[in-house]
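Supplementary Methods, section 5.1.

A reviewer requested that the exact input to the structure prediction be made available. We therefore reproduce it here, unchanged from the version used in the analyses.
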Amino acid sequence: MNGAPGNGGNGDSGPQLTLRAILTGGALGVFMSISNLYLSVKIGWSFGVAITACVLSVVFWNALRAASLGRLPAMSILENNCMQSTASAAGYSTGGMLGMAFGALLLTTGSHAPWYFVMPIIFLTAALGVFAAIPMKRQMIDIEQLPFPSGIAAAQTLRSLYSRSRDALQQAYALLLSLGGGAAVGVLRIQEGLLPWLDRVIASIRLPELIAIPARFSPIPDHPLAGFGFQPSALLVGAGMLMGLRVCLSMIGGAVLLYCVVTPILYQIDASHVGDPGYVPSRIMSPDGTILPPRWALWTGTAAMVFASLTSLALAWPAVARSFRFSAAARTGGAAAARDVPFAWFVAGMIPISIGMVALLHLAFNVSILLGVVSVAMTFVVALVCCRVTGETDTTPMGPAGKLTQLLFAVLAQGNTTVNLMSAGVTAGAGASAADLLTDLKCGHVLGACPRRQFLAQLAGVVFGTLAVVPAWYMMFPDAQRLEQLNPPATMMWVAVAQALTAGLDSIPPSARSAAVIGALVGVALPLLEARFPRAARFVPSATGLGFSWVMTFDSPLAFAAGAALAALWARLSRRSADRFAVPVASGLVAGESLAVALMAILAAFPSAISQLLAALGVGA
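The structure derived from this sequence is encoded token-by-token as follows.
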């Protein structure tokens, strides 16, 4: 199953890359890209969209057929695969760099980069990922037959849907129902004042942003603790169901440790040294008296995650080493090569993309030509590692890839935060995109689809995604304050690493520096324990979960843990039901709320955006 094309179709016959598949996949990808952008900003955790795109593509087209009273003909399974490729590329490959690198830039500088620079950079970064996947597809999918589990699962799901399998249809309905439920929760939790007319409609049934834990249970009763409560979010609960019990229990354990143990100690130490001329406070308290533990803990959490990621990558060194060895078989021809993307396409695409990217980075952010070339060249190294690890483990290591490239550019461009963020953002973003697109190519490979047509569908998806996600970015987050309101964990990590690497460690409170060393040691120790005692690995706390809990407020880990506990309880009560429906339900909750919140933010910003556009065009002046 891993390597040989299935019987789902033949790569040279039957409709695949049709106009209706591209347009329908593009329309679906527009919504998925906006949803994924909000998701990456809100929780800093990215979920592959292959299976979601697969199910929604079938449901979406069947809904259009029903609306046309059957006048629209049915799509073939390979045509639907191309539609899925377009939607997946649009949904995944365009939003990551916006939420991370450009989000960090917005928080660092306080202003947006001009859209006429952002849009082409996002397009070229995503396209770089599409083209970087070309030389790796034949090696990793055709020759080595790496599993890419999500790709195989998507192919099996698509086959089940076309065979009218009862289980597959029920899973599709479950995803749609939970999608609607997640969207409803998003509407009921809309920020007050964002859409005044909606405030009036939902006034009596509005869900609170936070269900606060009573003050008598607070570890510091004299001051409010930011986020000390439960956030009734379908998105966070669904994400917890997908993450699993081990990661989420590690998260809530880390959050309790930070809020109930470490923060009171810091508060007491700061209070006892008030007025001491040589004492540097922990900075956990904001000017309004609210205590915000992640302001201090950010460095510890980031250190734990970075070192855990690097340790895991080092432990997987055989897979990484194999990334740089291309077998002789990959350079030979054959029947598969006749349908593969020609190397000439790779060259013809990479030359203008590379030149354009280097020129844009130089013009927009004053990145030197040499550093721009290094950034593009490093994309292939990062893509090799990301694709290899994703193929073997189904996990894309964008986190360590991003931090490694930030470290590299901190050495090459000392003291320049903007250069650090943009150069590393391009490299990590394109590498992660290549890995996800290979997952999509694996799905097509199992079904017997033509790789050339999938490649073109992915390129089309990049166009749709870029055109949708860049305007959405400016509308959802018109200023740094709106972005800060979400306390975006991954974006804050990018800021923290960039500032620490460029401004020096003296910019960090001494107590936070000491804690960061402890976090780094924990980040190294836990993956080593997992590797040393594999049978007991599920009882070892997740370093990623612990680190993540220290860069976000308490309410998020609590909601994640609630979702994981719900999924575990479901599995205990009915294993068969949970195996069939837990993932579709969780995916629907995540996509539903993120899409609803993102679209409402865009709707709220739309009048202002139109006014600014008219003013720029001189209309009404």
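Residues 575-617 form the longest helix (43 residues). These observations are discussed further in the main text.
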